[in-house]
Amino acid sequence: MRVVLKGIHKVKARLATGEGKTYYYAWRGGPQMKATPGTPEFVREYHEAHAGARQPRAGTFMTIITRYKASPEFSGLAPATRRSYLAYIKLIEDEFGDLPVAALADRRVRGEFKGWRDRFGNTPRKADFAWTVLARVLSFAKDRGIIATNPCERGGRLYSGSRRDKIWSEEDIAALLSIAPKEIQLALMLAIWTGQRQGDLLRLPWSAYDGTHIRLKQSKTGRRIVMPAGAPLKTVLDITERRGPVILTNSLGRPWTSDGFRSSWGKLSDRAGIEDLTFHDLRGTAVVRLAIAGATVPQIATFTGHSLRDVEAILDAHYLGRDIQLAEAAVLKLEGRTKL
Prior knowledge:
Elements: E1 9-14, E2 20-25, E3 32-33, H1 40-52, H2 61-69, H3 72-75, H4 79-96, H5 109-118, H6 124-143, H7 170-179, H8 182-194, H9 198-202, E4 213-217, E5 224-228, H10 231-239, H11 258-271, H12 281-292, H13 297-304, H14 308-320, H15 324-335
Antiparallel strand pairs: 1-2, 2-3, 4-5
Helix pairs in contact: 4-6, 5-6, 8-10, 8-12, 12-13, 12-14, 13-14
C-alpha cells in the first residue's frame, strides 16, 4: 500500500563530481530525511519529524519564525547557508519562541536581544552570526507587515577583526610551492591568478576553462566572472591531467571536501613556516598583485569580482601607504610620462 506523505520538500543539487542528487526534507525548512524514499524507515522518520516539531502558539514570535522558514527568502538561500541558519534559528526558538509578537514593539526588547547575543561573546563571530539571523527573521516580519519596526536593525556586531592587511609575500608563496604536492600547487596558482574564493575554486569544473579564459559564477555574490588565464596559470592548467569533472582534486583524484582541503592546506602552511596567513588571504593578495602590476581599481574589480568599494578598501591604508612596490611602480609610471 502506497503511503502519501504531505509536505515533503525536495531539493535537487549538483555535486562537485557533476552528479545530480535529490535531498528530501520533512517540510520546507524542516529537517533533512536520511532514509531512502519509499521505505518504511522513510515514513517513520517523516512522522517522527512532525511529531517532534514545535507547534507555534498564535501571537508568538514562533509564528514569525515558522513563516520565515516556509518563505522564498529562506528557501532561496544556498543549502549550506540554510543549514547554518537553522542551527541559529533553533537557538532563537528556544530562547524567544514564546515571546508575544506585541512585545517586539517595546523598545526594551532590543536590550533583551543584545543580552542573548552577549552570551556568545567569547566567540564574537558566532555572536555576530546569531544576531544576523535574528535580524533577518525580524526584517522578514517587518517586510510582511507583521511588525512595524525591526528592533535588531543596525549595530550588534562584536567581531571587528579584518584580514585586509594579511598578504602573502613572494617569499611565502615560494616557500609553500617548494614543498607542496602538485594538487596544492595548482590550487595556489588558481588562487593568486584569479583571486577567487576557496569554495568557488574547489567546485570549478574543467568546462569553465576554454584554453584562454576561465568563466565562473561566484556562489556568494552571484556575479558572473570571465578572467583571462595568465600565462603561468595557463601553462599549469594545460599540463594538468584531467582526472574528473572538477579541476582541483586530491591525491586520490577525487574532488576535495572543504574540510579536507583546509586540513591539508593548514598542515603544509605549518611545514613551510607560514604564520597567520590563510588560503582566503590569497584573494586579497591577488588584488594587491594586480595593483602592483599597474591595474586600475575598475580593472581589478572586473577581474576578481570584488566591488569597487572592496578593492579600494583592500588597497587603502593597508597597502597603499606601506607597500614599497606600489610606490616604485607609481614612480616608474610618472618617469615614463614626464622629463621634469
